[in-house]
Amino acid sequence: MSGFIVVAFASLLMQQAAPHPSTQAPYRAPAIRPFEPAPDSAREQAQGDAEGDLYRRPLEAPVVVEAYVRSYEFTPSDIETVYEQGVASAEIRADQSAGPLDGGWRMVDAAGRPLYDLVLSDPGVGPVEGGWRNRSGWGPATSDGVVLTLDGAGALTLERTANGWRGTLTVDGQTRPAALIRPD
Questions:
Q1: What share of the chain is helix, strand, coil (3-state, %, to 5)?
Q2: Nearest to 141 by CA among 157, 133, 129
Q3: Global pTM?
Q4: Please, which residues have CB within 8 angstroms of residue 158's CB and are 6 or more apart in sequence?
Q5: Labelling 112: which of 36, 77, 142, 161 has CA 20 to 30 A away?
């Protein structure tokens, strides 16, 4: 009997749902690489900088606010400053290469009531993919830039507006106005 249970349990483990077929291309290294400092980046000490403590001594007793004479933290080193600037620059470049549908959206009806929450990945060229959810479920979403298809929930024709997208939502043959806005 116990052998039957083990076989039944093993067969349940093997019966996993197949992943959703994706139209998105396989992973490739990003065109905009993460920040990588040059080998000689900020290695020379800036002129006029005096030798000083880079790190605070460990606390041996509680410190009251009145005990601080200067700033609360040490000034970042040159390499820390270069790193922070590089990360900020890489984030800006990545945001600039994303398409207009990239990110989180909320679909609302004409009265502004929420219908669906969406998260879309828009690489700027090619198909847009993502997912949708509402109180009754969730599913994949795709777009060709003209129609946003919510698998199992309908389709929204897209027209760009000043603060998002609007169009006509078609669900089970019935149409009504809807809009995509950025959630607060």
A1: 20, 30, 50
A2: 129
A3: 0.57
A4: 143, 145, 146, 147, 148, 165, 167, 180
A5: 142
